[in-house]
Amino acid sequence: MTNLNNSKPFSIKDKIGYMCGDFGNDFFFILVSSFLMVFYTNVLGIRSGIVGILFLAVRCVDAFTDIGMGRIVDTGKAGAEGRYRPWIRRMRIPVVLAGILVFIPWAKNLPDAGKIVYIFVTYILWGSFCYTGINIPYGSMASVITNDPVERTALSTFRSIGAALAGVIVGSLTPLIVYVQDEAGNQVMVGERVFIVACIFAVLAFICYTICYNWSTERLVVEKKETEKVSPAKLIKGMVTNRALVSIIVAAIILLLAMLLVQSLNMYLYMDYFKNKAVMSVAGMIGTVCTLLLAPFAGVITKKIGKKEASAAALILASVVYGLLFVLKIRNPWVFCAFIFIGNLGSGLFNLMIWAFISDIIDYQTVQTGSSDGGTVYGVYSFARKLGQAAAGGLGGLVLELIGYQEAVGGVAVIQTEEVTSAIYSVTTGIPAVGYFIIALILIFWYPLSKKKVAEVKEELERRAVN
């Protein structure tokens, strides 16, 4: 039985509260994604091969913890605070403390075996247990804050804004603090400074989580007895046969491969092809600017057109823009930036709405199985995204090797050949062109939740709530 609690009408507090959840998450997620490899290798002195094994091992652990956490929150009893929201209160302290433990610079004084034990224990504790323990309930919570498609798009939009704001803060300020110039003129990471940054981000993340907990309200409450009716076999069958879930997972993996692979190669594009460091900084901000520009219009677009329909059209636009870049072989970096700005408006709209897609899919799963499995659905999706992120990270180096990129020799940069720089340009424009077009086709022909279908699912859930 699904009950609708309208004691607190959906408002701007819900949007800001939900935004703060991802704001808090991404202080450490982006810090880890951008700086942990350097911290491990350059501060702690751990071989990169061991770090690579660690990252691979954690993905294997995540397969169990992401889905396991989803089942824990789905089968738990929904109290006065709701089903998912209490986990934000419970996990906000453990996750920030675990994040600090990842960046202990004094671990460099441990013997080699001790260092390896340290990085495995602390990284798995933070990423696979504490971060999962707060992120899975947080992501699932959007589906029970509101059942209105436009309001869900607003939550997804504000979540993306929170991630963008964290990206700006972490990406722009952290390098200025943690790096110093040595006597030879090289930029060197200082472990003690990284630790201080981690402590500051822990305080900011805790504040964000607290706002998220206090300002969010679960309005759709599913009684526990409904989840108890579903056997593991039926749950798995429901997941596998859920066209909406399977198609959006495939779309998300392709999206991540396209976006993250290009991001990993952008430095080489601007330094070796365009030979312009200043443009690289501007290009790095384009995605955030597009997110902020699109945010006010996402709800209106959803209401008039629908998430599936608008996202497919926007992705086709992005594909066309990157296709033109691929063909034109532009040499002026500022003209190139103008093109990718337009392209990011297309891909950015889909990114803004992606979390609202997941809320609709959770409802669709409930209609299919008669059970509320929001945490499990989100856990499966979260794990699939991590696989995409891991694959994209590995492919960046492989692509550079395949196109013949020459690394620095003895600290002296090698001037790349015209063939190599042209190949870098082709990869960074051709992959998004193909990737975005494939995702658009998935949304048009495979993903079933059109604007009309979403409305039908909502009506069915409301009918069941009355009965």
Query: Residue ranges: pLDDT <50 for 5 or more in a row?
Result: none
The count of helical stretches stands at 15
Q: From the helix content, strand content and strand pairing, which structural class follows?
A: mainly alpha
Helix-strand topology string: EHHHHHEEHEHHHHHHHHH
* Distance separating the two termini: 8 Å
The strand line-up of the biggest sheet is: 1-4
* Mean pLDDT level: 87
Q: How much of the sequence is in beta strands?
A: under 5%
Number of strands: 4
Summarize the main sheet: 2 strands, antiparallel
Radius of gyration: 22 Å
The assembly state of the depicted protein chains is single chain
Query: What gross morphology would you assign?
Result: globular
User: Into which percent range does the helicity of residues fall?
Assistant: over 70%
Structure description:
The protein has 467 residues and is mostly helical. The protein has 15 helices and four strands. Helix 1 runs parallel beside helix 5. The longest helix has 37 residues. The model has no long low-confidence stretch (mean pLDDT 87).
Could you outline the blueprint of secondary structure elements for this entry?
Elements (H helix, E strand, L loop, with lengths): L1 E3 L7 H32 L4 H28 L9 H18 L9 H34 L3 H30 E3 L5 E3 L1 H25 L4 E3 L1 H5 L3 H9 L2 H31 L3 H28 L2 H22 L4 H37 L4 H29 L15 H28 L5 H16 L1
Antiparallel strand pairs: 1-4, 2-3
Helix pairs in contact: 1-4, 1-5, 1-6, 2-4, 2-13, 3-4, 3-6, 4-12, 4-13, 5-10, 5-12, 9-12, 9-13, 9-14, 10-12, 11-12, 11-14, 12-13, 12-15
